[in-house]
Amino acid sequence: MNDGRLVVAFHGDDGRRRLFDVSALPLPGWHTALAAAVAERTGPGGGLRTFAAATTGWGSLGRLMRFLGTLPQPPVTPGRLTAAHLDAFHTHRARTAPTAALRELGEARILFTSSVLRRLVSAEVLDHVQRRLPAPRDAEAPAGAGTKRVTTGFSDGELARLLAALRSDSARIRDRIRAGEDLLRRYRDDSSALDGKDRETGRLLEQMAATGRVPMPPGTRNPFSPERQELAGKLFLTLKDLPPLMMLAAALSERNGETIKELPVRHRVLEGRAAELVIVKRRRGARRWFETVTWEIGAAERELHTPGGFYLLLLELTARSREQCGSPLLWCVWRNGHGARLKVADDHVAPFENSLSCTALLPTVWAANRSRPLLADPQPDSAGSDGMSAGLPLQVSFNRIKTSMEVRRTKRMGGHLPSAAKSNTMQVLFRNYLSGDPVITSWAEEVLGEALVDAEQAARRAHDQAARAAGGGPRVLPGPGDAEALAMSGLDADTARQTAEGSLDTGWTACADHDRHPITRQPCQVTFLDCFHCGNCLVTRDHLPRLLGLLDALAQRRRELSDEVWWQRYGPAWVAIRQDILTKFTPAELHQARTEQPHDALLDLVENPWELP
Fold first, then answer.
1. What's the confidence (pLDDT) of residue 80?
2. What pLDDT, on the 0 to 100 scale, is given for residue 133?
3. pLDDT, tens digit, 9 for 90 and up, residues 160-174
4. Helix or strand or coil: residue 510?
5. Contacts of 490 (CB under 8 A, 6+ apart)
6. 549-571 burial, b if ≥16 CB within 10 A, otherwise e?
7. CA distance 525 to 506
8. How far apart are CA 569 and CA 529, in angstroms?
9. Quick check: 370 and 244 in contact, CB under 8 A?
10. Is this model's pTM higher than 0.85 or not?
11. Beta strand 346-349 with 510-511: parallel, antiparallel or unpaired?
C-alpha cells in the first residue's frame, strides 16, 4: 500500500523503475489478486524485466480490466469471469487494434495462469485462454495489413554513401570537441599566449568545464542563440549530434538501436587491442538479456572504422556531460534547459536512462537535412520509359542498418548461417534479416548461377575426357533409320541391318560392338549412362523418343537431389545428350519424337536403388 493506494513497485534489470497503481483500475474485487499477479509477472522470476516490457504488459492488463468494467454485467471477482467475457474482449480488440489483439490475449493467458489467479478463475477460463487463437482477418483490410513487414537493407551504393556520411559527420563532431579541449588546455597553461578572441573563448570554456553551464557569449542575450549553441558544442555533445554517432556505432558493432542506446560506461581494455563490455540484447527471454562482447580497437587513425576504437572515442566525447549527470550509460549530452522547459539554463542528461523512446533521433531527417543530403538509388521511371527517376531522400533507420550489416556479414561468411549468426539465432537471422532482402537475394542468385556454371563446365570436361578415351563419343546418324540409309551413312551392311532391326539396342541407344569396349578391349561392363561417352554408341532417329524420356527423368531426378550430387552423377550424360546428340537432329524430328515419347524412361533399372538418397 502507498498512501491508501495498492501499487506494485517495479525495478527492472535495465535499472529503470515504475509504480503500477492497481487501485486505479476498475473492479475492486480483482485488485488484490491482480497486484499479486503483476508482482509475479514483473518480479525477478517473471518475464517482464525491462521498463518497456513491463509497461506494455501493464497496458494490456489495463485495457482488459477497463473493458470488463464497461460491460452491463461485469465480472466483479475473478471467479465470475467467463470465456464469453474473453471472447468479447478479443472481438473488441480485433476490431479496434487487430495487430495487438493476439498479443494482449497472450498476455492475459500468462496472467491468468499465474500461481495467484489460476486458483481463482474457473477451469473453463483456464482452458479457454490456453487454446490457439486464429489471426484476425478483415475482408476490407488492405493486403498485408496486420502482418510484419520485413525491413530491407540498403543497396551497396546506398550503404557506402551512408557510412561515408556517418564517418564525415562523426569526424566533424570529434574534431570540434577536441579543438575546444585543446583551446581550454592552452588557456589553462598560459592564457597570455592567446590572442584576444581565443583568450575570451578560453575563459568561457573554463567556466563551462567547472560548472557544466554554458554562459551567454558576449553580445548575446537570447539563450537560444546560435552562438550559445555553438559554444556548448565546443566541450559537450548535444542532442543533434546523436543520430550520426549512434548510427555509426550500430553499423560498426552490427547491433540494433536498442543495444546502442544502452551502451554502458563500464568496460575493460584488453592489452590495448580490444574493449570488453557487457551489452543488453533484449527479447532473448528472462535472465538472458546481457552479453559480454569484445570489440577491436585498432589503430588510432582507424577509430571511425573499428567498434572498439569508436566506443573509446565516444567515452571521450561524452566524458564532461557524464561528470555532470553521473549516469552509468555511455550517452550523456548537454541540452538547453530553457528549450526543455526545466526552469534552469542548462542540463546534462542521459537521454535513454529512463526510457529508450524518450528522445526522438529521426535518422531520416538527419539524412535529408545534411549540407549534402543522402539520396536513395535512382529507380526505373514508373511511367515505363527507359529513363531513371531522380533519387529520392534515403530512408534511414537502425533496422535498415542492422539488416544491411547482417547481409554483408553473411556474404563474407559465404552464406554459412552458423558462422554468420552473431547476435541472433540462425532462424531469426534468416527470417528477420536475410529472407526477402534484395541484396542477399541478388547475391544468392549470383552465387547459385556461378555454382551451376562451374558444375556444368565440370560435367562437360568429364564428358569430353571420357569421350576421347573411349573412341570419340557417340556416333549420331540423323535421317531415316532403315538399313539402307544407315549403310549409306557409313555403317557396314550387317551392323546397319542389326541397328535398323533394334537388335543392337541397349538402354536408350545402340551399341556397335558390345563384346569389345574401346578402352578395355573386353566385353562391356559399364552402365548404360556411360554409353553416351563411348565410340561404340550409335544413335538414330528411332532412339529420340527414349532419349527425350530420359531427359525428362533426369529433370525429375534433379528436383530430388542436390545440384552437386546431380551434376556428378548425371551431368556428363546430360551434356552428351544435349550437346552431341540432339543438336544433330532437326526441330521437326525432335517434335515428332516428343509425340512418341514413352512414359517410363527406365532410369531406375540402370542404377541400384540403394545408390539413391
1. 92
2. 62
3. 999 999 999 999 999
4. strand
5. none
6. bbbebbeebbeeeeeeebbebbb
7. 13
8. 9
9. no
10. no
11. unpaired
Q: What are phi and psi of 74, to 5 degrees?
A: -70, 150
CA distances from 586 to 123, 384, 596 (A): 77, 40, 16
Q: Is 355 helix (H, G, I), strand (E, B) or coil?
A: coil
Low-confidence residues in the chain, pLDDT < 70: 1-4, 132-151, 283-288, 337-345, 358-359, 380-391, 412-460, 463, 466-472, 600-601, 605-613
Q: Judge contact between 334 and 232, C-beta under 8 A.
A: yes
- d(C-alpha 516, C-alpha 523), whole Å: 5
Q: How far apart are CA 517 and CA 342, in angstroms?
A: 97
Give the separation between CA 172 and CA 182, rounded to whole angstroms. 15
What is the model's pLDDT at position 561? 81
Residues 6+ apart with CB under 8 A from 95: none
Alpha-helical segments (H) within 300-354: 307-325
Q: Tell me, what's the pLDDT at 167?
A: 96
Indicate the residue type of 381: D
Taking alpha carbons only, the member of 525, 515, 512, 520 closest to residue 474 is 512
Task: Yes or no: say if 531 and 506 are a contact pair by the CB < 8 Å rule.
Answer: yes
Q: What is the 3-state secondary structure (H, E, C) of 73-112?
A: CCCCCHHHCCHHHHHHHHHHHHHHCHHHHHHHHHHHHHHH
Across 271-317, the runs of DSSP E, i.e. the strands, are: 274-280, 290-296
Q: How far is CA 539 from CA 187, 247, 532, in A?
A: 96, 66, 9
